[in-house]
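Pasting as-is:
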Amino acid sequence: MKRQKNLFVLLGVLLVGGLASLPWQLRQWKSLEAERQKTAFQEKRLRELSQASQKTSEARTHLPTDPASRMEAALALVKTGDSTHALPLLHALEEDSHRIPGITSPLGDLYRQVGQVDRAYALLSSALLLTPNDPATLVRMAYLELSLGEREAAMEHIHKAQAAAPNDPEPYLAEAFYQDQESKFALAEPLLKKALAAAPERWNTAALLADNQARQGRYDQALESLDRLVAEHPGETQILAQQARTLLDAANAQSSKASEYRKKATEVLETAQKLAPGDASLPFERGRAWRDLGETAKARQAWEESYRLKPTYAKLRGQLGALLLRTGEIERGRRLIAEEEQAERERTDYNVAVGKVMQARGDEQARRQFAHWCATHQKPARAILEWERLLSAHPNDPEATQELARLKNNGME
C-alpha cells in the first residue's frame, strides 16, 4: 500500500513537472521548427542559384537561338551585372524585335540597366508611340530619364502612369525612387506605403519601406520590419544585405548597441555570402563591420574578396587603400586611394555637366558642347543619344551627322 502511495506521489511529481515544462518545450520545438524551415528554404535557394548560375555560364559561351531563351539569359546576365555578355543577346533580340510582340519596352529597360542609354531611349520612345498610356513603359521611360538627369520629364511620365493605373504599385515606387534621389525621405514614405498597399505580397516593397525608415533615423522600427522579413523569406540575400547595412548604420547612430549590432551584421552577411558568393557588396559590408570592431585582418580579408569580385565597387578602393596605409603597405594603398578619387572626380564632373545642360534647356549650343564632352569623357552612349536628338530636330545637321558616324565607326556605341 505504501509502495502504491509512493508511486502515485512520483507520478504526480512527474505530471506536475511535465506540465510545468510544457511552455519551455513548446518554445524549444517552435525554435527548432523555425530553424529547420530556414535551413530548408536556404538549401532550396542555393539550388535555384546554382541552376541560375549554370544558365548564366551557358549564356556566356553559347548564344541561345530562340527569343524566349535569349530573353531569359539576358535577364540573368543583366542581374549579375555582366553587360559584356548581355549586350550580344540584347542586340540579337533587337534585330528580331519586329517578330516578337511586346518586347520593345522590356528590351529598352534592359539596355538602360547596362548603360546603353541611346538604345534604351530609342526603344522606349518607339514603344510609347505605339502605346502612349502603357503604365509599364511610362515607368521605364521615367527611370531612364531620372538616370539622364531629366527629372521634370520623368515626373510627367510617372504621374501619367499613376493616372492610367492608380492601383499599380510601380508608378508609386518610381516616384518614391525620385524622392529618394532628392534625399526627401519623408515624402518617399507615403508613396512606398501606397505601393505596399497595392501589392502587400511583395516583400521587396516592404524592404524598401524599412530602408526608408532607417534613412529617417528610425532604426528600431526598420530593424523590427527586417527581422520579420528575414523570418518570412530567410533565403533572400537582398533582405539579409539590407538588414546588415541597417545594423551597421544603427551601430554608428546608437553607441550603446554598436558592438552587438556589428557582430550580428557579420553573422547575417556570412549567411548572405553563402547564398550569393558573387556579390561584391556583401564582403564590402563585412569589411565595414570588422573594421569598426577593430578586427583589421578580418576587414582586409573581406575587402580583398570584394576587390577580387568587383575592383570598381563604390568606395571600396578608398576603404581598402586607407587600411593598407595604416598597415604599412604605402604604395598599393596610395594607388587604390588615387583610383577612387579619380572615379569620384569623374562622377562629379559628369553630374555637373548634366546639371549645366539641364539648366540650359532649349540651348542647342549647350547640347552640342555636352555631346562633345560625353564623347571625350568615356560616355559614348550618352554622346550618341545627344547627337541623335539634335539630328532628330535638324535631320540635315552636318555636325551631328559627322559626330554620330565617327562614334559608331569607332565602335564607341
